[in-house]
Amino acid sequence: MPRQEVISKPLKALKPLKPLLAANSEAAADAPAISAVRRERGSGVFDTLREMAISYELRPGERVSEIELAEKLGVSRTPVREALTRLVTDGFLLPATRGYVRRPLDIQETLDQYEARVAVERECLRLALQRGSDEEIAEALAFLEESRSVPPDTPVRSLVELDEAFHMRLAAMARNGELRRMLGSLNERIRFIRWIDMENVGRDSTQHEHQMILDALKSRDAAAADQHLTEHISLRREQIVQAITQGLARIYLGETAASAAG
């Protein structure tokens, strides 16, 4: 059998090793910076879309367009897609045949969320009675006193923010990160209804109820603290119906119609 000839092809010239290593090192050094920029951009997109979902700028039952949102925010579709996926996990959106839809303002679902909030906050308070220090209770009382000084014309969104901060202080005394995380998630999902409810109830009533909760916590009166908290954060079905009616009027018809619906 004839011996095959081996045809040798000229090898391409190899690049010098040191410049190549230097280039790779520079690329590796740039990678974390690029990743940080992408993470920051993605976080900003998520925060913006979450606020749009909370305020129902993404309307109930409305299809959410990844392309339209990317154009509106002036970003690529990738961070929008990632943000929408997170909003599904967080309970703001529902998967649809083509993309996602904003969850509807549903009476039973809202009632479920308020019942969950009561359960989480009661457990936080039970643990706070055992674990909260006198210094933490004094700090909460000081925060409550300071919040009383806000002007009467303070926007309702700021009032609800102060209210949430008060309840998160109680949760912090429980020393349970999971309960605090659950409460934070519930606060975001019911925030729109909380804005409506705050307008209906008024700040003075809320402040008085906060004071009763803290007085009972300070005296370590578990029964009184639990009763005051439960009465403070529970909403009856008819109250939820009223808040949703006003909320839908606001979403679709504006502030004037919402006041008339109330």
Q: Which residue ranges are poorly predicted, with pLDDT under 50 across at least 5 consecutive positions?
A: 1-14, 33-37
The arrangement of helices and strands along the chain is: HEHHEEHHHHHHHH
Q: How do the strands line up in the largest sheet?
A: 1-3-2
Please identify the structural class as seen in this structure.
mainly alpha
Shape: globular
Mean residue pLDDT: 87
- Could you tell me how far the N terminus lies from the C terminus, measured between alpha carbons in angstroms? 100 Å
* DSSP summary: helix tally: 11
How many beta-strand elements?
A: 3
The radius of gyration computed from the alpha-carbon positions, rounded to a whole number of angstroms, is: 27 Å
Helix content: over 70%
Strand percentage lies at: under 5%
Sheet of most strands: 3 strands, antiparallel
Assembly state (oligomeric):
single chain
